[in-house]
Amino acid sequence: MENPDSDKEKDFKEFLNPDSCQILANSILEPSLAELSLEDRVQFERQGYFCLDSKESSPDKPVFNRIVTLRDSWAKMQKKG
User: Fold this and answer.
1) pLDDT (tens digit, 9 = 90+) per residue, 13-70?
2) Is 74 helix (H, G, I), strand (E, B) or coil?
3) pTM to 2 decimal places
4) According to the UniProt entry, where is the signal peptide (predicted)?
C-alpha cells in the first residue's frame, strides 16, 4: 500500500513487515566497531550497510540498524540476458 494513512480503519502497524525486526543475539563483532560514532556507516559482509541505533545502542551492547540491503544484481542481469 502506497499510503498506509489513507486507510483510517487500520493501525499503521498492520502494514509493517513482520520480518523487519531481526535480533541476532550473541553475535561476534570486530573490536573496532566499539569505536563507531552515530554518523558512521559500515558494511557487514554479505548482509548490507548498517548504522548504530541512536536510542538503543550502548558501549557494552551495540544495536545496529540495516539501512541498505545488498542485492545480487549480477544474477538478475544474467537471467535477463
Assistant:
1) 787 888 888 888 888 889 999 899 999 999 998 889 999 999 999 988 899 999 998 8
2) helix
3) 0.66
4) none
For the chain, which domains are there? 4-80 (2.40.240.10)
Report the alpha-carbon distance of residue 29 to residue 44 in Å, rounded: 10
Nearest to 51 by CA among 34, 35, 69, 39: 39
Mind spelling out the 3-state secondary structure of 15-61?
HCCCCCCCCCCCCCCCHHHHHCCCCCCEEECCCEEEEECCCCCECCE
Confidence of residue 4 (pLDDT cuts 50, 70, 90): low
